[in-house]
Amino acid sequence: MAGAQEPAARAAWLRQELQRHAHAYYVLDAPTLPDAEYDRLFRELEALEQTAPGLVTPDSPTQRVGAAPSTAFASVAHRVPMLSLNNAFSDDEVVAFDRRVREALGRVEPVAYAVEPKFDGLAVSLTYVDGQLATGATRGDGEAGEDVTANLRTLQSIPLRIDTALPLLEVRGEVLMRRRDFIRMNEAQRARGEREFVNPRNAAAGSLRQLDPAVTAARRLWFYAYGVVAGEADLLPADCHGALMDWLAGLRFPVVPDRAVVAGVDGLLGYFRDIGERRSALPYDIDGVVYKVDALADQQRLGFVSRAPRFALAHKFPAEEALTELVGIDVQVGRTGALTPVARLRPVFVGGVTVTNATLHNEDEVRRKDVRVGDTVVVRRAGDVIPEVARTVPERRPSGTIAFTMPANCPVCGSAVAKPEGEAISRCTGGLFCAAQRKQALLHFASRRAMDIEGLGEKLVDQLVSASASDGAVEPVLELRAPLVRTPADLYRLTVTQVGTLERMAEKSARNLVEAIDVSRRPPLARFVFALGIRNVGETTARDLARHFGTLDALMTAAEPALLQVPDVGPVVAQSIATFFAQPHNREVIDALLAAGVDPQAAAPPPAQAGVGPVAGRTFVLTGTLPGLSRDAARVRIEAAGGKVAGSVSKKTDYVVAGEEAGSKLEKARALGVTVIDEAGLQSLLQQAADGD
Ligand code: IVH
Predict the structure, then answer these.
(1) Cα of 115 to ligand 1 centre, how many Å?
(2) Pocket lining: 116 vs ligand 1, CB cutoff 6 Å
(3) CB crowding 246-259: b at 16 or more within 10 Å, else e
(4) Are residues 435 and 397 in the same domain?
(5) What one-character-per-residue DSSP string does 175-229 give?
(6) Interatomic CA distance for residues 138 and 605, integer angstroms
(7) Using a 6 Å cutoff on CB, does residue 225 contact ligand 1?
(8) Domain check: are 105 and 217 in the same one?
(9) 147 & 270 share domain
(10) Does the beta carbon of 85 lie inside 6 Å of ligand 1?
(11) C-alpha angle 10-12-15 in degrees, rounded to nearest 5
(12) Which residues of 146-174 are buried (b: 16+ CB within 10 A; e: fewer)?
């Protein structure tokens, strides 16, 4: 640990660590540490060297910009070094940057800044001689990079020839891989048993630095230009960065999208927030935004300090990956009995929040990643996605760790755990005997889109399913008493007095809950079917079933062939419905619900206009993010026009509506020849439907 070592020994250790990781990162394209951890070590070394300059060695990682180019490619010296940017992580640092800029320029009024996303790819430099692409190089160590011209020539977005009178033009920008292509590529790598890449950036780097350009060509890389070498500025038909980008766009370069020109520090921070909110919907990874003084003359006046320009700043988002220790692996039981291993972590700040738990998905995933208690792990939290353990750092594994195995018995109820051959998920076989499954089943039953019982949340359900409630008169004794609620039907027999005995339940709230339960007695059939929690029956299928069969009785008595008549119900779904209704205990619960006065309301017949208009009677599948319409809103509008929204693409699908980041559904649509439309296409169909076309 830091404190235990002499500064000289610590510096030597840091140098060695940083060199090892830099090699893994730049040369092998397989980073071993998250960037934030690398930066932390780097800053620690910098600080040590600052307090004791005698510790600086010529080979210290602080003494150069990147790592040496690999020897596989010819080296190209950059005419003008490829520098890096100074980073800011807080608003204060941005305010300080703007102040420095204004002081240096002697300006009081707000400065105009060109602002752009900061791509998380790799920097390249393209040199055009007499309008022809002559050289394409990676950044390398900033002074010299690798000659990857042949590979860059395979990128469709890079013009091989441009229409300019300039004898020499050097354009700089970023090569990146879109997230969708990254996922696809890793799937293919996995299928072939080849190495997977850690993130899109390393995949882009690995793909560009291929000895065989055909491999690069197959990898779908993108290029975006964000600059022109400063030496040429006076020859260029632009006096500010924004205009320069427009000029590049005119030469048919793909130029950074979402760029803008803003005024002063308020403009900078406003842009940062705006892009931050849209970040997860962008098709590629960005790790922050870049601010550049817009006027090129001012850029020249400001110049450079050591490794970075004074006129620009990278404002970074909080790191999405961080290192921490895995202190335990718990196994959680879900509604259908699925066992999920959950990582208990030493609290760590990542993606802007403190994370203490992260999902490990399932046993196969834990095995594949070989995650063990005691490991140092990389925790990832991107956007609003649930935090996950991305990988371990094998070099930091202590001795004596043991591989994880799923328990043979349910950690909650002790029933046997089953894992069907070929499936990834282990399940508790306890059914409603298992308190965890009971709890989840009840929460699902009561949830807003099911029976919609207001106020029946997690805390309360916890008590209802496990509490050994006394009848209020005597102190609970140390013995196991029957829980108040075992099945959803028990809810409808709860009395105000019983509920009032639970913790933190005043008479008024008890009364409210019993009333809310009472109100839920007449649900539409579709919601009731959804509430039952039948495996593979989501909201849409529940609605289809309700519509098709009309009554609960008809549905319950339908055999598999009858179920298969329902649009979008395939053999797997049909079987799980039939199995569900064949189980005596499920029948008992339903009978008890009906006996308690629950009365599902028959579904309305399909809308009369089915079969006319461009939407009525058609099946839509939504995929990806629609920029202007939430999925719920899109579904409501499609259904209002008599259409249907299905969860998966089949031959019966009429339209796939694809938004940003559309994935496998889009591919399937293409494979099946299903019509694919975008949000605008959907809007126009809806408009036609509304106009009565
Ligand atoms: S301008 C003097 N603009 O960030 C450096 N860089 O830390 C001028 N990057 O290696 C760079 N997006 O690869 C600039 N819109 C953008 C960028 C960007 C990503 C990368 C670039 C560079 C690193 C600097």
Answers:
(1) 12
(2) yes
(3) ebbeebebbbbeeb
(4) no
(5) EE--HHHHHHHHHHHHHTTPPPPSSHHHHHHHHHS-SSHHHHHTT--EEEEEEE-
(6) 63
(7) no
(8) yes
(9) yes
(10) yes
(11) 110
(12) bbbbebbebbeebbeebebebeebbbbbb
| DSSP state, residue 27 | I
pLDDT attached to residue 272 = 97
Domain that holds residue 586: 525-595
d(CA 589, CA 595): 10
Nearest to 471 by CA among 498, 491, 448, 450: 498
Q: How far is the CA of 85 from the centre of ligand 1 (A)?
A: 7
Tell whether 425 is covered by a domain.
no
Ligand 1 centroid, distance to 224 Cα (angstroms): 11
118 counts as catalytic: yes
* CATH for 87: 3.30.470.30
Q: Are residues 393 and 286 in the same domain?
A: no
Q: Is the CB of 69 under 6 A from ligand 1?
A: no
Please name the residues in contact with 302: beta carbons below 8 A apart, sequence gap of 6 or more: 101, 104, 105, 293, 309, 310, 311
Ligand 1 pocket, 227 CB below 6 A? yes
CA–centroid distance, 132 to ligand 1, in Å, is 24
Q: Do 559 and 574 touch, CB atoms closer than 8 A?
A: no
Mutate to test the pocket of ligand 1, among 42, 139, 290 (most ligand atoms within 8 A of CB): 290
- Please tell me the distance from the alpha carbon of residue 275 to that of residue 218, in angstroms, as a whole number: 30
CATH code of 634's domain: 3.40.50.10190
Beta-carbon contacts of residue 454 (< 8 Å; ≥ 6 apart): 512, 516
In a domain, 585, yes or no: yes
How many angstroms separate the CA atoms of 231 and 236, rounded? Answer: 10
Give the tokens for residue 599: 């009365």
* Phi-psi sector, 617: left (phi>0), alpha (psi -120 to 50), beta: left
| pLDDT < 50 stretches in the chain | 1-3, 66-67, 469-479, 608-610
> Mutate which of 118, 175, 256, 296 to test ligand 1's pocket (most atoms within 8 Å of Cβ)?
118
User: What one-letter code names the amino acid at 365?
Assistant: E
Bridge-based pairing of strands 388-392 and 376-380 is antiparallel
Q: Is the CB of 226 under 6 A from ligand 1?
A: yes
Nearest ligand 1 atom, CA 121:
13
User: Same domain for 237 and 363?
Assistant: no
Q: How many domains is the chain partitioned into structurally?
A: 6
Measured in Å, residue 656 CA sits from the centre of ligand 1 at 37
Are 290 and 147 in a shared domain? yes
Residue 84 Cβ contacting ligand 1 at under 6 Å: yes
Q: Tell me the whole-structure pTM to 2 decimals.
A: 0.58
**Whether 156 and 278 share a structural domain:** yes
Give the distance (Å) from ligand 1 centre to CA of residue 227. Answer: 9
Are 104 and 245 in contact by the 8 Å Cβ rule? The answer is no
Query: Does residue 137 share a domain with residue 209?
Result: yes
Domain of residue 38, CATH code: 1.10.287.610
Residue 613 inside a domain? The answer is no
CA of 66 to the centre of ligand 1 (A): 13
Closest CA to 326 of 355, 298, 353: 355
The protein residue whose alpha carbon is closest to atom 18 in ligand 1 is 118
Q: Do the beta carbons of residue 327 and residue 318 sit within 8 Å?
A: no
| 152 Cβ closer than 6 Å to some ligand 1 atom | no
Of 519, 534, 549, the domain-final residue: 519
User: Atom 3 (ligand 1): residue with closest C-alpha?
Assistant: 226
Residue 121 forms part of a structural domain: yes
Cβ of 275 closer than 6 Å to ligand 1, yes or no, is: no
DSSP letter, residue 355: E
Residue 473 is predicted with a pLDDT of: 38
**What single letter denotes the amino acid at residue 251?**
L
What CATH number is attached to the domain comprising 586? Answer: 1.10.150.20
pLDDT, position 180: 92
How many helices (H) and strands (E) are present in the chain, helices listed first? 25, 24
